[in-house]
């Protein structure tokens, strides 16, 4: 198993691995290269600008300006509540800022791809640990090409969003669980850094990490599993959970210190319950007596969860149409509203949430993810001129059909990979023991947990699951390597790490 973690001894071998990782990075970036620019999404604007927003808040606080300047429209309405949202990670925004300083906007894509390519090296070695470097290097390149061209990984590597880090999180945990006790300190630190960064980059990643860590901790209660897993299997993810929670707390404290008010989380669960039905029924049955702030907008219900949160018209939208102090009140009452809805409509609520969690497993559309000319108004209003020009010059801008093509690619590659894994399992050719079997188990568990976390707490939405289903083609490739690849590469014995 040392083959998985030891560095090559000769400079020639090190250079070969550097070249392999560089080539793998390039292969994973192919969608962005063909597009002529990284892809952007609605939320990308927030990630591109949050560091500047936080810097402005700090500057105003240090200048002793007192109360923050508020838009004239808000002053006229008497609403001087300054909102900072928690749904966009300032830490990923810092990552984007750093990448852009290094290599421009393309730097975001390159660092995404580099992280995945580097992680694929030890993962590929799990499939054939006795094989020589040449075989492993070729396998890494094949996997990078397959993921970049034939799965959703290429799209999400090329997207200025933290989505790709959900898959990196699952892979890093899988490696820690599979071979954590035999990893050296550099490898443990590197994997821990990937997990911690993923936890800092999005709240859903932190929830996924905490759930996986909790399940691992439960397994550790059994002596047989405790001997197999080892302390590192739970210790590293648990430390990353602490780092993620500390990061969230630090952001909240910073916002509270600079603005005098805590950040606000959009009420996704409220929107989901309203869209699903029980929340709307509860409002219609109990308002205005129940006293919820949402009662004032019950005539707009039911409405789609995205319209509830983001639509700016008063017929279908709620959250984005109300003053800031009402937004804060809607967010603050979310937990109470959820519990009240559950108490009033227990069967409908639980059944609906479970159904949506299962539905998220195969909700894989990315039709509205990469921006095309259909998003011209939003692009012009939310993004900097530099980003607008680059996006409008990209290949996908005047070819909106390419977005649904990414959806078909994601759905087909996922279906074929799932079928391939099932065939190997039925044929008894899928690894059942050993590190690769553990990695496969962790990845499948991560796929299921991600669906339930996103589908239940938000709502089924294609991007939520499409961002990680590229794990299935990867697992199929690894299973094929382990089953049909050579145990050793002839002529490579003298080069072995």
TrEMBL record:
Lineage: Bacteria, Pseudomonadati, Pseudomonadota, Alphaproteobacteria, Rhodobacterales
Residues in coiled coil: none
Highest rank taxon of the organism: Bacteria
Membrane-spanning intervals of the chain: 102-123, 135-158, 164-183, 190-219, 231-257, 409-430, 436-457, 469-487
Protein name listed in UniProt: Uncharacterized protein
Keyword Transmembrane helix: yes
UniProt keyword annotations, A-Z: Membrane, Transmembrane, Transmembrane helix
């Amino acid at each position: 198993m040392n083959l998985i973690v030891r560095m090559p001894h000769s400079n020639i071998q090190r250079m070969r691995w550097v070249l392999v990782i560089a080539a793998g990075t390039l292969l994973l970036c192919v969608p962005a290269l063909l597009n002529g620019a990284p892809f952007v999404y609605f939320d990308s604007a927030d990630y591109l600008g949050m560091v500047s927003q936080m810097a402005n808040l700090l500057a105003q606080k240090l200048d002793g300006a007192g109360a923050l300047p508020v838009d004239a429209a808000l002053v006229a309405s008497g609403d001087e509540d300054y909102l900072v949202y928690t749904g966009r990670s300032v830490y990923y925004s810092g990552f984007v800022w750093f990448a852009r300083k290094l290599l421009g906007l393309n730097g975001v894509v390159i660092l995404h791809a580099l992280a995945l390519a580097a992680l694929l090296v030890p993962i590929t070695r799990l499939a054939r640990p006795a094989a020589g470097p040449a075989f492993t290097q070729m396998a890494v390149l094949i996997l990078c090409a397959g993921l970049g061209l034939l799965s959703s990984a290429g799209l999400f590597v090329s997207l200025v969003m933290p989505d790709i880090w959900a898959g990196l999180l699952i892979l890093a945990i899988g490696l820690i669980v599979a071979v954590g006790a035999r990893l050296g300190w550099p490898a443990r630190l590197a994997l821990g850094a990937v997990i911690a960064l993923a936890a800092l980059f999005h709240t859903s990643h932190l929830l996924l990490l905490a759930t996986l860590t909790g399940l691992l901790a439960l397994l550790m209660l059994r002596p047989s599993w405790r001997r197999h897993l080892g302390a590192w299997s739970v210790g590293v993810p648990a430390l990353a959970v602490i780092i993620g929670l500390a990061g969230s707390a630090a952001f909240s404290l910073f916002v509270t210190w600079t603005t005098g008010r805590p950040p606000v989380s959009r009420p996704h669960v409220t929107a989901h319950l309203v869209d699903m039905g029980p929340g709307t029924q509860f409002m219609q049955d109990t308002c205005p007596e129940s006293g919820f702030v949402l009662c004032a907008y019950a005539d707009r219900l039911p409405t789609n969860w995205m319209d509830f949160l983001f639509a700016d018209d008063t017929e279908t939208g709620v959250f984005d149409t109300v003053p800031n102090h009402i937004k804060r009140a809607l967010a603050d009452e979310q937990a109470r509203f959820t519990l009240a809805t559950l108490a009033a409509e227990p069967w409908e609520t639980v059944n609906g949430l479970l159904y949506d969690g299962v539905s998220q497993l195969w909700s894989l559309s990315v039709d509205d993810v990469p921006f095309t000319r259909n998003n011209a108004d939003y692009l012009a209003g939310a993004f900097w001129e530099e980003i607008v020009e680059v996006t409008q010059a990209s290949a996908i801008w005047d070819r909106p059909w390419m977005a649904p093509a990414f959806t078909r690619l994601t759905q087909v590659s996922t279906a074929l990979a799932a079928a391939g894994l099932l065939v190997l399992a039925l044929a008894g050719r899928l690894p059942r023991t050993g590190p690769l079997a553990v990695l496969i188990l962790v990845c499948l568990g991560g796929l299921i947990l991600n669906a339930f976390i996103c589908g239940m707490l938000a709502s089924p939405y294609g991007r939520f699951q499409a961002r990680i289903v590229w794990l299935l083609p990867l697992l199929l490739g690894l299973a094929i390597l382990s089953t049909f690849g050579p145990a050793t590469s002839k002529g490579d014995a003298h080069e072995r790490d």
